[in-house]
Amino acid sequence: ELVDANRPPVEQMQEILARDDPAVYAMIRKADTIGVFQIESRAQMSMLPRLKPQEFYDLVIEVAIVRPGPIQGEMVHPYLQRRLDPSKIVFEKEELRTVLGRTLGVPIFQEQVMQLAMVAGGFTADDADGLRRAMAAWRRKGTLEKYEAQLRKGMKDRGYTSDFIIKICKQIYGFSDYGFPESHAASFALLAYVSSWIKHYHPAPFLAALLNSQPMGFYSPSALVQDARRHDVEVRAVDVTRSEWDSTLERDIDPPAVRLGFSLAKGAAENAMRRIVAARTERPFESVDDLALRADLTRRDLRALAAAGALSSLAGHRRNAYWLAAGNRNPGILGKAPVHETQATLASPSEWDDINADYASLRLTLGRHPLALLRRRLQKLRLATAAELHKLPSGSPARTAGIVTGRQRPETARGTIFVTIEDETGYTNIVIWNRLAERQRRELLDSRLLGVEGTLERDGEVVHLIARRLIDHSPLLGRLMVESRDFH
Prior knowledge:
By secondary structure, the protein is α/β, with parallel strands linked by helices. The chain has helices spanning about 10-20, 20-30, 40-50, 55-65, 70, 75-85, 95-100, 110-120, 125-135, 145-155, 160-175, 180-200, 205-210, 220-230, 270-280, 290-295, 300-305, 310-315, 320-325, 330-335, 350-360, 370-380, 385-390, 435-440, 440-445; strands at about 235, 250, 255-260, 395-410, 415-425, 425-430, 450-460, 460-470, 485. The strands form 2 sheets. A 5-stranded mixed beta barrel has the order 4-5-6-8-7. It has a 3-stranded mixed β-sheet with strand order 1-3-2. A hairpin with an 8-residue loop joins strand 4 (about 395-410) and strand 5 (about 415-425).
């Protein structure tokens, strides 16, 4: 729906890429990339404000540099330093400029390691290909060692210093822990840029597409919806009179709204939901009973719809919907005979009850964020919001709490765990050192509402809270169930 049907889509994508749109790169530099292919992880989002991509090749570097190979080979900081201060760009010998010039003198891609071995170490093309295969063998014992002596001797014979030789060998061993070929990085960067462009200019279709592709990525449907709403996307509830199986766009407003699909509702059977869509094309539903009769729904189908709040347009609030779903006739006994019964007068559920029901059925809510309802209690505990934390200077002591939306423990982090928590104002990135993680394992793994005391650390626009104590505040959430994507 984002392209002109009268023109080849590839041609239109090429136009998008040719622009190197400044607004898109400004969004990327702020790490506003939740849901964006390849650059949505905690590590990538921490790197984006440091590397500050301004053009497509910067994204190619970004994709490749946040990998175990460059990290283990200690290539990340030298590259960032040289990007910030071009005077630090130096080459051991001028002949290396042709190999490493485009990456500021730091080998980032597998192809560069092969070229380096040929130019500086005297490798033949076959030797270099063998080195590539060895790097791809992922730590298989003996695969790299047999090339190391040859490389060291070749570089020494050509006048390279011992320090430089040691550094290059360390970087090559880093690539054995997974480094990226430049061609792969460019392909991934292409998808990252197009994804970013869609998120920036068409956030509603972007959200609908992500919801219809679940499960995937680092973020739950709740986190994706919260992010989209912060970008002024109107998200509408599941509704038997409007929803389809997938989430869809409603164009009665500009930009369009996203209508949540039946697929998000726990227990919703696809065949039954498609019968609803087919039945309402004939004429609107008059009541829950009319819906059940014409779409041939079971009590189980109706209970799933009531739990998701999808009967509100016919039944009013959830308690009425539950009542009507529980009392609905059994088609096998009464056939198509209408049922006439007095509607019970039931009190509306509380806002908290509705939010609980939303999370239980949909794993998200379109009501207020749960922590907005708890804010007074959290303020009494002197817990700051995410927005308040981001205003503090580096080194400030800080206390906060948020719903856990993700826990990640990268192999390259040496046991450090990165946790993302969310409140009604945004996200906070938590760094938990290995010793604290072991000492407070239960709080780390079991908390849905995690409290953190620690020290704020700021590097430009990148803000982390370095934890020194974890507190499980989950009892404040009551029955609320919140999904997180753990340990990528």
